[in-house]
Structures are given as structure tokens and as C-alpha cells.
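Structure ticket #2291
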Amino acid sequence: MGGFFGIVSKQDCIHDLFYGTDYHSHLGTKRGGLAVFKPEGFERVIHSIENDQFRSKFDPDIEALHARSGIGVISDYDDQPLLIRSHLGNYAIVTVGAVKNAEELARRAFQTRRLHFSEMSGGEINPTELVATLINEEESFEVGIMRAQEVIQGSCSLLLLTEKGIYVARDKLGRTPVVIGCKNDGIAVALETCAFPNLGFAVEKYLGPAEIVFLTADGFETRKPPENKMQICGFLWVYYGYPASSYEGINVEWVRNRCGAFLARRNPIDIDFVAGLPDSGIGHGLGYAAEAGVPFRRPFVKYSPTWARSFMPQNQAVRDLVARMKLIPIRELIEGKRFLFCEDSIVRGTQLKETIRRLYDAGAIEVHMRPACPPLVYACKFLNFSTSKSEWDLAARRAIREIEGETVNDLSAYTRPETGSYKAMEEKIRRRLNLTTLKYQLLEDLIEAISLPKGKICTYCWDGVDQPRPG
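Resolution: structure written out below.
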């Protein structure tokens, strides 16, 4: 998905910029980048972070980047920030989201304006460059950003660093969060509020959908008011978000504890203990254990010093290897036990199947699973959530294909727990994973755990509903 951090300050800001950007490292593992504005002009540095942490790659660079304003990005896709020279002036830009109609927008630009775009290594157009081109077509940054938001399908939040300050814009339906923090000598903007406390910032404002704000060291000003319709990604609270962060004022760990509690209430079961598959399953598991009144244990320990998140690598074999190597089973806690574990979700299920097999190999006699969200029936079309090349890679869709074949007349039946289709799908997945029992979270319980109206949360991957409702 990616994340960004920006700052304007009355003093040198490089350390705040460095650590503020680093606090977004859980959102992507492809590229990291920093750009600053100094009296002599813009400077930037970009590194691959596929095999190294952000801090280790950028630590040697920060001494050369001292400045009073800057932007940083963690990207799961393209090289950023970009430095742009245009009739609007020179600037640096970073984006987060997914421009799903990039090829269409590029073809339109080729036909009408004879423009060109640099290609990325896979032949794709750099989406941040495309967004900058859309902005440059207009007579001001504000109008350009608004125009880009209008024509982009998917989502796009951005930071745009100029000589005078930073423009920040949240995507038009608020699928990704953006928040402003303040302290005495500066103002910062981030996706994750967890970037603020240790740097001395206090949350000042959550941007609304499509809102544009301009930041200087003296304050911030709304240049375009927010829209009423919002579709923030519900998966942020389930998995993507960092436990210490809040979106729309709602803390991630608090929501995960509530998700676990709902799971415990719906399907009581006699077990020896509850576990959470690390890391994101821990918050859900703690909530389950507290509600059910059973112990919480760690039958798997994650070796975090060197093994990165396993869902990012494109190669399935590499993903499986990372998943296996980073989780170390503790036989003394597993052998002869009946236990239940909470997981954020079941995406493909390939790594999960291996994990469950290892639990039985370590002596488990019953293994129950409670995912914190409903089955993923539809692939996300608004954010770069999954690296799957096909919806059929999803565990739920594979189960549906086994039931109905390649042609499915009514997918909606598989999103409603009361239907026979849903129950058959759930049973197919349980058998494939070799679980004693499997019960998914109900969508209404997840919505209640998040504590926003359903019309403000994007639930497309679970129920196929993609039309925003008035706020």
C-alpha cells in the first residue's frame, strides 16, 4: 500500500523526517525515498528496501539532507519521490494508493497532448509521474490536484513539496487516512499517527475525503474542503494498520481487541488456550481470550530481527519460505493441546496451510481458527492490497470454483453467512487447511468493532459493495 510523511519546520527537520518516514515501514517493502527543499534547491535520495530496513539504507544520507521542509515515502511499487520542473514551479511529489486506470489516462495523454512517460522495469508507467502530469495540466496546484482526483480510478493521496510549503491531499473517497500533527516548531503530516508521539507531535486534524491542505511552519490552511462521501479501507484496522495508530480517531489495537471479543461471543468452544498468529493476529487473539476467559499463549514466536513481512514478495516460493522461517513453534506449549488461533484474514491460504501442518507436527490435537474479517470473495480494486495476479488466487474464490466451476452466476450468495453457498465455501476452506473448526467474522460484527457507519467503510473485498453512500 505504501505510506508517507512530510514536515515543515522553523528548525532543521531531517531527523523528524527520517524517523517519521521510518514509522511507515510496515506499509511497504519495495522502495523508500526522501526529498527536501534547501535554499540551493531540491535534493532527494531513493533506495531499495527489499532486502534491508529503511534506517540502514538511509542513515548514511541524512547528513547531506539537512533542511527545514521535506517529504518521505515508503512505497510498495514505484520509485519516489519525483522531482518535477513545470510551469507551476519546481516541486517534489509522493503518492500513495493505486491508479487503476493509469494506462487509459496515459493513452489519453498520448493522443491529445503528445506527452511521454518513462517506463518502470516491468513496462508500467510510474503512477506518481502520471499524477504529476495531470496536476501540471492546470493553472494552480489546487486545481491540478482536484483534477487528478476526479479522473483517477482507484485512490491517490499525495504530498507535494514546494519552495513555500507542502500541499497534502487525501484521496477523493478517503480510502487511505491522512492526519496532521503539530508541535511548537513545526507541522507534520502522515498516514500513521504512530509516527507522532515519539517525535513530539500531537494529532491536530484528520483530513476528510478529497480535502487539500497547505502546510507552512507557521500553520496550515484548507485549500479545498472535504467531501461528504467516505469509503475508508476497513482492512486498515484488520491488518494493515500499526496497533499504535488511529484512523478517524479510532485506534487499531482497540478495534482488534473488539474483533476478537465478537469472535468469542459468536462461537463459544472448549479449548485450552487462545493464540494470535503474529503479528496482526495478536490483538484479535487477546480480545478473544479476554472475552472467553481462557489463557492467551504464544505457540509460535516470530523471529523479527531479519525476516520481513511474508506477503510482499512477488514469488510464491519466496513468500512461503519467509513465512516458514520467521515463525518458530514452541512444542512445549503445543503438544497435547486443543487451541484456537486468531488471524487477521485468510488471503490465499498457502502459507497458512503449512503453518497449521507444523502445529499438528508439534503435537496439537485440535487446531481451531477464527479470522478477524469475513471471507475475501473479491480482489481489492482500490488499493494495492494483494500481489495476487488473479482473483482465483484468493482462498474463498478457489473454494467457490471447486463448488461451481469456472462460471459463477451469483457471488453474492457467498458473502451471506446464512446461505448454503457460504457454508459450503467455509467448509471447503476448513478442509483444505485441515482445521478442526473454522468460523469467519461476521461483517456486521466487524463494522461494529470499527465503530463507523457501514456507509463510511469500504467493504468491497468482503461483500462486493463499491458504491459510496452519503456521509
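Closing remark: The mean pLDDT is 91.
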